[in-house]
Amino acid sequence: MSPLRALVLLAVLSSACALGVAPDIHDTGLVVDEWRVTRDAGVPDDLGFPDDLGAPAMDAPAADDGPAADLGDAPDNGLLLDLTLPVDVPVVVDRPPVDLGCGATPGRTCAPGERRACGNCGTQTCTGDCEWSACAGGGVCAAGATRTQPCGNCGTQSQRCSAACGWESVGGCAGSGPCAPGATQGGGCDPCSQQVCQSNCNWGGCGLRPGSACEHRAGRHSRSCGACRCGLQFCLESCQWSTSCVSCCTTCGGCL
Question: What is the separation of C-alpha 153 from the centre of its chain, rounded to a whole number of angstroms?
Answer without folding.
Answer: 51
